[in-house]
Amino acid sequence: MTFRAVIFDLGGVVFPSPFDAFDEYERTVGLPERFVRSVVAASAEDGAWARFERSDIDFAEFCRAFEAECAAAGGDVDAVELMRGVTTGFAPRPAMTGAIRTIRDRGLQVGALTNNWAATGDRTEPEGPADLGFHTVVESAIEGIRKPDPRIYHLVCERLAVTPVECVFLDDLGVNLKPARALGMTTIKVVDAHDALDELAGHLGFSLAVD
Fold first, then answer.
1. Taking CA atoms, which of 104, 163, 188, 197 is between 20 and 30 Å from 14?
2. Domains in the chain and their CATH numbers?
3. What is the pLDDT of residue 122?
């Protein structure tokens, strides 16, 4: 198979996972392990997290709603402090940025497909996705749809002028990989960044090792 594009998730793939910040917050305030992510998962598409990523609500509304969801689940969460932890020190992984450059240099299209939220005063990424060399960046907060909605996968393909079967898609969450596979994309679940890039190199037929 000859691929024409590689599409990267951002948080958990190119950047650190927000789950790391969830874990640190839980340790700091004494919440049970995986409490925050369990609230996010249980609330699904109608919950505060999903609505915030679609820009259905603003930051203040998100904080109120998310704190209420956490309280209903039996935990006291300061949403402002939690999100400050998610966005502090959010530097990209050098192995991933090197791979993006190599893929571009080889003449392939490179896109980002991310569930995120509109910028707030607490969002402090030192380097954003627009700085990393992507040909297009498709963001849930701008488009009003989020993974795993199939429409957002079609949208990134449209902007890269490719078909799904011509793409490799990397994400750290299986729920986001399932619809990509259904559309015909080759998918890679990112657990370890270097292992994922080795798998990607095998699909592309050239090395992505950083010198």
1. 163
2. 5-16+90-204 (3.40.50.1000), 18-87 (1.10.150.240)
3. 47
Query: Is there a contact between 26 and 16 (Cβ–Cβ < 8 Å)?
Result: no
Contact 174, 11 (CB under 8 A): no
For residue 123, the model assigns a pLDDT of: 45
Give pTM, 2 decimals: 0.91
DSSP string, 3-62: --EEEE-TBTTTB--HHHHHHHHHHHHTPPTTHHHHHHHHHGGGSHHHHHHTTSS-HHHH
Do the beta carbons of residue 207 and residue 201 sit within 8 Å? yes
**In the predicted model, what is the mean pLDDT of the chain?**
92
Mean pLDDT by 10 residues, the chain (211 residues): 94 92 96 96 93 96 97 97 86 94 97 88 50 92 96 98 98 97 98 96 92 59
What would the DSSP string read from start to end of 153-205?
Answer: HHHHHHHHT--GGGEEEEES-HHHHHHHHHHT-EEEE-SSHHHHHHHHHHHHT
What whole-number percentage of the chain has pLDDT above 90?
A: 84
Buried b (16+ CB within 10 A) or exposed e, 132-141: bebebbbbbb
Enumerate residues 6+ apart whose C-beta is below 8 A from 193.
13, 93, 95, 96
Q: Provide CB contacts within 8 A for 169, sequence distance 6+.
A: 6, 7, 9, 113, 153, 177, 180, 185, 186, 187, 188
